[in-house]
Amino acid sequence: MRRLVAALLATVLPLAASIGSARADDDPVFVIEFKDGAIAPSELVVPADTRFKLELHNVGESPVEFESIVLRKEKVLGPGASSFIVIRRLDPGEYEFFDDFHLDMPPARLIAR
Length: 113
Known about the structure:
By secondary structure, this protein is an alpha+beta fold. Helix content is 22%, strand content 43%. It has a 5-stranded mixed beta sheet, with no helix packed on it.
């Protein structure tokens, strides 16, 4: 019985991993750059009702924090660091985000259409 389970897992796990990675590779990717409080672009149009990935790059010399209360997402990046956030789906509308370490700078927004 154990051999049967082991053989089944050896067959199913690689298949499941390849399905998951194929899906992640198919997601649209949008890039956001942070530089010492400035966010570029300040407005980013993304697809509504579609899973997508935000690539976050800190090109500045100070730490930054992607923060969105409405999206319930946050990510801290040190100087020169990069990371990403996956958004499963958004209803059409506008979603504000900001750099929580540079609150004196204006927020940016995602516009889901």
